[in-house]
Structures are given as structure tokens and as C-alpha cells.
Amino acid sequence: MFQDRTQLPWVARISEAFPEFDFERFHLVTLPDLVRLNGHLVSRYLQDLAPIAFTTPDGKSFTWSASASGVTGSPGIGSAGTVVELSHDTFSDHINQLISATGAVQTRRASVTKGSLAHWREWEPAIRSLIDGKPIYDSAIRSSLVDLSGNPLALDKCFVADDSVQDMAHYLRTMGYLHINAVFSAGEIAVLHTEVVRCMEQSVPGDPRSWWSLNSKGEELVTRINHCERFSDAIGAFAHDPRLAHYAGLAAPFLRVCDDRLDGPMVFIKHPDVVEGKGDLWWHIDDGIGGSPVMNPLIQAGIQLDHASAANGQILFMAGSHRCNKRPYAWGEQGDLPVVALETEPGDLTIHFGDTMHSTPPPTSSDAGRRVLYYKFAQPKTFAWVPAGCHYNDALYAVDEQGHAATRAAGY
Fold first, then answer.
1. How far apart are alpha carbons 167 and 269 in whole angstroms?
2. According to CATH, where is 3.30.1050.10 located in the chain?
3. Could you tell me which CATH class the domain 139-396 is placed in?
């Protein structure tokens, strides 16, 4: 039933670069050690979660249960609310954060034989926290959202180009996003806007490098175009504008623009009345199907081509979430978390970490049509592992015994 990893040689090299966790030894030796080290990070979070079991095709199984110390791993399936069947390789890749629960199921590398994927996803931040020692995101993050003097930071602060670079870097690294006003001129935005329209006119349904949605009239709408340089030399060349590199570089050292991989220059297009497809994105992170240690820190630099508001479609962030592991959220579940909806103008630039939780809800206006041109930045390790023309998501291809293949992330 399961295919371990893929037939892509560069994908195998990624997996081979990470430690291989033996399924039994991990549960009997490694997991207790991790609980002693990091169990305090997950005990409160897990107290109301039902147990989950992992089982392999050769009959080995362990159940994870909440405990006062964090987690206990017991042989067998027991009373687990959810049972996940997966191969030894997939379990090891999951522990290494090379594949998420969602990615494993979507690519048929794992099967939920009892319970639900949603339950596994609720367990996922605890699994990650045990491994990497990061806390699980909650409202306590507010106490860390402070400036260099210890004063609370405004969630919607907008900087200008001549503000302190130190302050901007601190804000970005603390909050996970940054908004700079009027980085690009009206003339530059007009050119880019025209080029984006050209890309939209040349994109067709079925293009594996674009996303399409449907409105209530049954009309097909292009909502995202990857590798816009296919259609526009100007957009391709703009990847190397020094302003993009400058502001993206505030996030982390040694960043390089992903002009030829990881989707290349990409435009995201909001439409009203989308009823099917990914025109409106729920709360997510950009490594939601796996690959965090390969891609992160992944930086998204967004050139705002239109006004952004609730009416025209805007991006929302959970402040500080890039520094934590996150449970899945649906719209309206944010509670007292520090959530901000950014209002931007044409020519503004936004920078955010790919693993900052973000969302783009449906626009409220019937004539919405906001467009944002994104350029990704990553460190040398990402370029060493992911070849030109490829995305880490290619690593999640899998074909089952019936010949069914998972599509790219763009098709999920």
C-alpha cells in the first residue's frame, strides 16, 4: 500500500541527510528521553486529547497518551482514538519534520485506519515540541511581543523606508511579519500590474503551475500563478531588485531569492464569490505538508499591487507564531490570540516567515480583485537540496498500487 519516499534521487538524498529513527527504539528509548527533556512543553496542551496509535505494516504498534509528565508511549493500540498506519521510513521522516500528517495522508504514505486526520493534526504540535523544544503557540506569546525597550509592540505597525533597520529587524523576528509603506513607486507598480495581467491572460486551467477556483456561477478563476517569469521577463528580472533582498535579509542571514525554484515569482489573486478551490486560504503555514528543516527560514516578500482591506481581501497573521509549533485553526477559532489583519496600499511591501500562521479570508466586496506579487527567499541549504525547477513539495509525490498519484501542493 505504501511507497517509501519517491523515485526522485534528490528526494532520497534529503531523507538520507537526516537521522533514521528505528520505530521500536524510538518509542522505548528516545521518546522517554524527549519527555524528560521537553514534556513540560506539551503536558497542558495534551490533557484533553485522546490517545493516538502508530502502527507499521509488519505489526509493530505504539500508543501515545497524555500524562502528567507529557506523553507516555505504550506497546499496542489499546484505546487509541485514532490509529495511523505508516511505514518505518515515513515514521522516521515524520519525526524529522520532513513530512507532516497532512502530507503523509495526502500522498498515501500513511493511512488513518481509525479516527481522523484532524486528531493526528491536533497531536502534531506536541510531537514537534518534544523533538525541537519549541513551545506550542497560545495567548501567552503576548508577553514576548515587545520592542527593544520592553514595551508592547503594535500588531499593525507600519514602517517607512528610513526607519531604523534595527527596529524593523527586531519587529520582523519577533512578530513574524513586517509591513513597510511605499517601497515601490507608482510607476513601478503600474508596470508590474500590467505584467501580472499578462500572466493571467496567458494562464489556462490545467496548468500544473497555477491554481484555479470556481465562483457560484461556475466560472473558472485563476487564483495563483507560479513561475510568472514564464510569461513576463520583467517579473523575472524584478526578483533581483536590491530592495527585496534588503528587507528579506532582515529576517535571517545568507538569504537568496528563489527565482528558479520553490514556485519562483508568484502572484496571488483574490476574487469575490469563490465557492470551490483555494481562492481563499484558511489558517496555514507554507510548510504544511512537510519540509520545515529543508525550507525554513523561508521568507515571503510580497509586493502589494492593490489596496488590501477586508473588502478587497487582506492577509491575516498570528503574531509570533513562527517561533512556536501550531495546532490547526479554522476561521473564527482564534479566541484571544494576537491576530492582525494588515491594511496595505499599492507599493507597500510585506515580509513574513513562511511558518508564521497566516490566512486570506474571502473578501467582503462583490468587486474585489487584489493582487500580490511574491518572491521567496531561502538559505543555501534549501538550494543545495532542492534543484532548479523543483519544489520541496515534489518530494511528497507517491503512487499507490492502483497507480493513483498525489498532485502538487498547488492542486490540493
1. 31
2. 9-136
3. mainly beta
Q: Which three cell numbers stand for residue 100?
A: 507532516
| 395 band by pLDDT with thresholds 50, 70 and 90 | low
Average pLDDT value for residue range 248-267: 96
> 89 pLDDT exceeds 60?
yes
Distance between CA atoms of residues 346 and 398, nearest Å: 41
3-class secondary structure, 64: strand
* Nearest by Cα to 375 from 185, 203, 243, 210: 243
CATH of domain 9-136: 3.30.1050.10
Residue pLDDT, tens place only, 27-38: 999 999 999 999
Residues forming CATH 2.60.120.620 domain(s) in the chain: 139-396
Cell numbers for 381, please give them: 541549504
State residue 231 phi and psi, 5-degree precision.
-110, -15
In angstroms, the CA 411 to CA 306 distance is 26
Burial class (CB in 10 A: 0-12, 13-18, 19+), 139: exposed
pLDDT at 15: 86
Cell of 56: 507499521
Write the CB contacts of 48 (distance below 8 Å, at least 6 apart in sequence): 66
